[in-house]
Amino acid sequence: MEFKDKVVLITGSSRGLGRSIAISFAKEGANVIINYKSSKKEAEALYEIISTYGQEYMCIQADVSKEDEVKSMIEQIIEKYGRIDILINNAGIAIDNEFEDREVSDWKDTLDTNLIGVFLTSKYAGKYMKNQEYGKIVNISSTNGIDTTYTYSIDYDASKAALINLTRNLAIEFSPNVNVNAVAPGWIDTEMNNDLPKEYLKEEKSKILVKRFAEPEEIANVVLFLASEKSRYIVGETIRVDGGLKIE
Length: 248
Ligand code: NAP
Known about the structure:
By secondary structure, the protein is an alpha/beta fold. The chain has a single domain (7-241), classed as Rossmann fold. 44% of the residues lie in helices and 15% in strands. The chain contains seven helices and seven strands, in the order βαβαβαβαβαβααβ. A seven-stranded parallel sheet has the order 3-2-1-4-5-6-7, sandwiched between helices. 44% of the residues are buried. The model has no long low-confidence stretch (mean pLDDT 96).
């Protein structure tokens, strides 16, 4: 049990990749804290599933873009466990629309969740990690932040590029005892992509060398690696996991 008794917060874990990461940590003996913004039912269903693994779990509603909610979430965790060992910054949103329809409010919502949310959770959890002289932070970026940019989600792409930069600065800020890295997945088979046109998704699949989107578990495996001692000499890096995408 690689993560036995570790206290692990996964933001945005009611569904999709976050849910898969939560289950993977629970299987490895961690005390998992599920976080969600509005999907209460899904979060509670996940809580029921991981409860069978026998550790102490929590399920906390908090919007990662709201400072008071993040502060309160971290305080609730510290009150229960007295520490926080691992933070997975997974919560993210993507609003897809035409360039002409893109509003400043879309930009703000996207950056508030995908970028400022990571700053807030890292700030409040990182303080305790620094004091306890141990911690791991893994941020979920995207290949859209590197080179698979898409004009329908320009603010999402910018947020994920900025997150790679933020990962490096957080790694400096929290060194030497708190280790910060990121994962940049390509396409993942989750609800986030449900509303995209079927033809577009088919075309995107054809560009991937393994000819399919990632199962959430395939990304979770890399997240757990970066949260483990096996990766302790990897610092401030972003690991790309995309099934061998061909960039044209
Ligand atoms: P998803 O299925 O849409 O799930 C997103 C999760 O984030 C949900 O649990 C949602 O909870 C939560 N969330 C959203 N806004 C939040 C907020 N302000 N505060 C707290 N939680 C919030 O997305 P996914 O595909 O699993 O994506 C997970 C991460 O992987 C994201 O950072 C995404 O950008 C990244 N990623 C995804 C793909 C892909 O192809 N799917 C590719 C590369 C990277 P509620 O429903 O309660 O709001």
